[in-house]
Structure prediction request, 495 residues.
Amino acid sequence: MFQEPNPSPSTQPGRNAKPFALVIFGASGDLTKRKLVPGVFGLFKEKALPDQFEIIGFARREKSNDSFREEMEEGTKKFSRFAPIETSDWDNFKSHVSYHNGNFDDPTAYESLKVKLQALQKAKGIQQFLFYLATAPEFFQEVVEQLNHVGLVGTGDEEGRVVIEKPFGHDYQSAKNLVTSLQDVIAESALYRIDHYLGKETVQNLIYFRFANSIYEPLWNRSLIDHVQITVAEAEGVGTRGGYYDGVGAVRDMVQNHLMQLLTITAMEPPGSLNSDAIRDEKVKVLKSINTPTPEDVAKIAIRAQYEGYRSSDRVAPESKTETYVGLKLTIDNWRWAGVPFYLRTGKALNKRASEIVVVFKRPPLALFKSTDNCEQLHRNRLHIRLQPDEGIHLRFNAKIPGKSAMGSVDMDFAYKSKFGSYSPEAYERLLHDFIVGDSTLFTRADEVLEAWRIVDAVTSGWAEAPIALYPEGSWGPNESELLLQKDGNSWIEL
Ligand code: BG6
Prediction:
């Protein structure tokens, strides 16, 4: 029986990190103190870092090393999965943290950064330079070009690696322009586009679940699967993020990246190996098999809605038409999936936080059970893959109720927590470690990002003139979304 927690990233063979300096651009933003520094601290606690490493915050605001360290201490104490944090641990860690003040468009800030990095190379044996762009997207190009000018990144194999946060573009064309212009200054192999959903343990487990078990693969196709539902529901509204979110909306913020990733991993063919390009090739093939919807299609397959009260949120336009909910039906036109709807939904201010993939199998023939009392209770089998919270997998099937000529649904359950305990590295921790060791499997490739934009662009342009539905906060979204499934004789499964 499995009792040990998963091996920490460092104990996995071939994954030792070389001494590194990680420069975080936009270091005074929320992401750095909520996720990035607590993530590196988690790796430090797990002993997954080399003895020599440096974290350098780069941002526009003037501040001293000490005040930057204090901010990071506050963030780490609040957001680290290792909280409460012992002072001695933080004191050890903070000696690796410093601050570099500079404007993103100021060449002298990069010159002085380079001098600092070279000094660290000499004094501490730092062997690799890594750059994390936690900035607003309009600075991506500028920062990478400036790094290129001082020779810290380039198109060869030897230079530094860069992580880019989302959003990668605003639509297909802007993403394509960004791909093309970045290609001139940095090698694709050195550019890591992050999608934090790929760092979630349960999302990675989807690959193991599908391909490390022989019982599911023969069922995983249009002969036996009726449809698939993918839900990423959030209970929180837009909160303080109105400035970013308004004008972006749920389809760009969530569907283009996180939901498309869930869809491709659920639907892809078995890759030839677990190497990064083998997996990403299969994911791209899925996206390429989704036809671009016409505006007439969009009216039938895509629902957008906004929660009541959204327009009075901080930094949201009073007349905003930004959607906070999307319901979408996609079909994958290949041999495995032709005719099987994939229903996607995501929204803010919904009934609860729940992310789940539900695979609904075809209904068995009813004739055999015509004489049972409740033959209409012969439900379709369902496989629920629950990503968060309460990660687990359960299979629902029909069983005879003892003593009666009737049936009911029963569940077979696997809960991560009860089997593996509560050990679960943060998504950012895993992805930061992959970045440090140079493993790009869980990062998205340019062609993948563009294919997802192709589909999302068709949806947003189809929506251009359409009215936006409203839904009450705390509900499961607009009625229109329910109707989307009802047209096919289906309904959203209660989570
Ligand atoms: C982010 C989105 O990428 O994912 C947010 O920008 C969203 O709007 C978040 O809230 C959801 O992530 P998680 O890990 O909480 O499901």
